[in-house]
Amino acid sequence: MQDYDVVVAGGGPVGLAFAGSLAGAGLRIALVDPQPAAGLADPADDGREIALTDRSVVMLRALGAWARVPDAVVAPLRRMQVLNGPSRYAMQFGAIKAGDGPVGRFVPNHWLRRALHDVVQDQHGAEVLAERSVASVRIKDGAALATLSDGQVLRARLVVAADTRRSRLRQQQGIPVSLHDYGQRMMVCPVTHPLPHHKTATAWFEYGRTLVTLPLNGGRSSVVMTLSEADAAALLRLDDTAFGAEVTRRYYGRLGPMHPVGARHAVPVVTTYAARFIARRFALLGDAAVGMHPTTAHGFNFGMLGQHALACELRAAIAAGRDLADPAALRRYEATHRGETRLFFLGAEAVMRLYAAGDSLPARLLRDGALRLGNLPPLRQALTARMRDPDLGLADK
Ligand SMILES: Cc1cc2nc3c(=O)[nH]c(=O)nc-3n(C[C@H](O)[C@H](O)[C@H](O)COP(=O)(O)OP(=O)(O)OC[C@H]3O[C@@H](n4cnc5c(N)ncnc54)[C@H](O)[C@@H]3O)c2cc1C
User: Which of 121, 283, 287, 383 is the most exposed, fewest CB within 10 Å of its CB?
Assistant: First the structure.
């Protein structure tokens, strides 16, 4: 049996960021993930472009991860607009006048994972245990025992599960979860196009599907489509030329002819919210706690807030000479993270289900009303403020 202070189940971006946030606290940390070591150190491109809020960038910078992300892969976002089907009415937020800075930045997910992995790899007291998963967690003699898939048992003061929205450890702990399967797939693919995107992300909703373009560097955009299972399967079967022609048609040629310049990836759209984020010597983080709809671009950002809140509580407990897994500290983490995420999650679910509701007249009218409401200055400012924090004074990268 090996002894650790903290066992982290999950070497995704949030588990890695959490391990990194404990640097310098004098803790022994094991981070466990079933992927091969090479896949964790140099993750494959999954086509995901992560829109980062200013607060996430500041946390990544403090971790030492931001400096490991090359400037060339960071794409600034100035403005977002949301359209409702064929209506020309757009809800707009972000930079309004010339000279306004970016409201967010896109970074490929695999670059974030690589940078965060490098941080943990170099961290004194942290070990990455690849090619193993945490199979179960139980409490014995006041400690948490994490049994790994290879039979090894790790004894820890706290186990943190960042093991995806379908978290097996959450289920084992008997933590109920509200889970909504949209029965859809989100497909992503980078494309080139001749017309400029003006660093603007555009989303529009029609015929039961959602289309988004995310502005990237080098005359490219990421096309992001929320589709029925059948439609996604049909698009995956097309060759590159036919796929390019089809996305050009679906995007009304707004950016000119589009050509794919990378692989297509399609993932199921499932959202989750755990009823509790903690148990005895146990905490949930990342998608395992709050699994946002990908269109909201908030899953990782919320994961960063959560891991930061939990790491701060652990550090405060240590500084006060209390147990690392002090129940009061874990409860404060839960309350903070619920406060940061709950209302936004519920609001986003209401909107996403409205847009997934097909094209009936009531759904169309409701959606049009929602866009007009979203254009009211206070709401528009609130939406922009979720991405941007001028007080943080971020420079352009
Ligand atoms: C298409 C798409 C676009 C997105 N865009 C954005 C965006 O713009 N902005 C944003 O903030 N978010 C975005 N997200 C969401 C974001 O990608 C996720 O919120 C984020 O990856 C969650 O990180 P995580 O570490 O919690 O989980 P994951 O990334 O799911 O990683 C979980 C890890 O746990 C490991 N694991 C599983 N089971 C076990 C076990 N039993 N023991 C040990 N390890 C285990 C897995 O191997 C995996 O490495 C997007 C998501 C999608 C699908």
Answer: 121
